[in-house]
Amino acid sequence: MSGNQQTLSTTLRQEQQLSARQLQSLELLNLPLLELEERLMQAMAANPLLEAESADDLPEPEPPAPAEAEDEANFDAEAAEADEWRDDLPLPSDNCARDDDAERREYLLNSLTDAPTLQEQLLQELALSDAPANLRRVGAEIIGGIDDSGYLRSTVPDIAMSTGEPVEVVEKALELVQGFDPPGVGCRDLPECLKLQLRRKNALTPVLEEILDHHLEEIARNHLPQLARTLRISLDELYGCLGELRKLSPFPGSALAPEHSEFVAPEVEIVKSGDGYAVHSCKGAAPRLFLAERYLKMLETPDLSGEDRAYLREKLQQARDLMRALELRQSTIVRIAEVIARTQRDFLAEGVEALHPLTMRQVGEELELHETTISRAVANKYVRTPQGIFPLKFFFSAGFTSEDGAELSNRAVMEKIRELIQKEPPAKPLSDEQLAQMLKAGGIAVARRTVAKYREALGIPSSNLRRQHI
């Protein structure tokens, strides 16, 4: 007999599964405002019982009274209206104001025009040039190898191979493209980029050319006195040369690169109220949903077909579930903002330096919510405060306890480091160890390595690179 045997067994296992309503609530809680608006528009398109009103001050309509309590004449009129509409279910909303807004929005979107890209502008300049046909053909190939920053990422031999033209022709075509706007376009490295711009301004001196060809590394390391001696010029003359270089753009194509601006809309606002702060939802933060009264009345008509009644009841339940999920989402965000308003009173009054440490676990315990729920609720959400608009996540960070017992967040410590560096003498910048000692003298014990990490997070170079030679 074979050693393999098949057996049947049963086991009991307990699992917790989320209902469809809970999953919908979590999904809406995680959505940022713009995606939420898109999701609601999709829901309204699929559910005739859902309507939205842009004005916040309009009350939500109440469901109508049962048909038995209505006047008999009105009942007959509504029954006739139901017969008229029954065959056309589902019906679009007759909200004229919303249709007008949608039409105006579509017109504005269709009226938008994109600015030409860097490659498109270069091709236009190439078409307007009086260069020979073969140079224009090679120039188009060169432009295809230029990235959005303005640098040529293809090599001359590769372009010569792909076009079948000699290297000398490719060099002439590259010189042609490098004469287009913006100045510096078509460069292959940083020195060539800066030299092209200086030549366009007739400002490329032998000293500047020597610096760009051989001494950029010394400048990056801030070895300016040694470089001045190498170039046999004074330190003031060297600073004058560096001033000319700072007027140039290391990425000539950036002026025409597509911008990726992020639209930020706060969902809640913290405002001063007496001796404390109050939290409320921002007006127009999200569309208000309500039930279409027409279909609620149709559900009360006795001669509505069973199929239509079942369809409307299904859509009515879906609409109510969505509206409950929206209310839960907004109330959760407001409750979190209320905890922030109580915890960060000093920040609201004084600014980032007074920011206190706060973790999502602490907020979750106070609101009796799980930490992951807090994380979903604050993701990509914004709040308007007396100090400006901030992401909700901004207020969550670990921190330090000073010698006097005051708690400071990491961001508050970073701001103190920034202030100390801004006040340092330019000729003798503070080292990370000196910064740590000054913070300790102020009652904040921070290790030197932590100071270095915070300084780098602020984008501030080390003391050697900050030193100004006099």
Could you explain how this protein is built, in words?
The chain is of the alpha+beta class and 470 residues long. Among the domains are: 20-91 and 291-313, no CATH class; 118-255, no CATH class; 400-466, Homeodomain-like (Arc Repressor Mutant, subunit A, Orthogonal Bundle), CATH 1.10.10.60. 53% of the residues lie in helices and 7% in strands. It is built from 22 helices and eight strands. The strands form three sheets. A four-stranded mixed sheet has the order 3-2-5-6, with helices on one face. Strands 1-4 form a two-stranded antiparallel sheet. The longest helix is centred in the last third of the chain and has 38 residues, at 306-343. It is extended, with a radius of gyration of 34 Å. Residues 55-97 have low confidence and may be disordered.
Gyration radius over CA: 34 Å
Structural class: alpha+beta
Helix content: 40-55%
Task: Please report the distance between the alpha carbons of the first and last residues.
Answer: 95 Å
The helix count comes to 22
How many DSSP-defined strands? 8
Strand order of the largest sheet: 3-2-5-6
Low-confidence stretches: 55-97
| Biggest pleated-sheet summary | 4 strands, mixed
> Could you give the order of the helices and strands?
HHEHHHHHHHHHHHEEEHHHHHEEEEHHHH
Q: How confident overall, as mean pLDDT?
A: 82
Residue fraction in strands: 5-15%
What general outline do the C-alpha atoms trace?
extended
Region (Disordered): 54-73, 79-98
Organism: Victivallis lenta
Pfam families: Sigma54_AID, Sigma54_CBD, Sigma54_DBD
GO cellular component, one term: DNA-directed RNA polymerase complex
